[in-house]
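REVIEWER CHECKLIST
Item 1: Sequence provided? yes
Item 2: Single chain? yes
Item 3: Sequence as submitted:
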Amino acid sequence: MAGQPSEQQVRDQIPQRELSRGFQDMLGRMISDPDFRKQMSDNPEQAVKGAGIQLDPQELERLRAMAPEDRQKIFQEMDTRDSKAWWVFVWRWFSWW
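Item 4: Structure as written out by the authors:
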């Protein structure tokens, strides 16, 4: 989709807080891949595993703890927003995390 950032562009914009490379890869993939977003909304643990993304144990636990309604809301927002607003998605995810 035109205007969508690449995974590398997303990774470059993610603040370097105590997040694993796997978490950064997961965020980049969620932003750049609508099918992966859908998988993350439905079953995040399986989506991450299927994508070969390795999260730290604490990150994986946090992912498991996220309510399905919260996941769906975040991903629906990303799917309905203008593609140039991908950064909103990143900051909403961080505000939850």
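Item 5: Key structural point noted by reviewer: The chain is about 70% helix and 0% strand.
Item 6: Recommendation: ____
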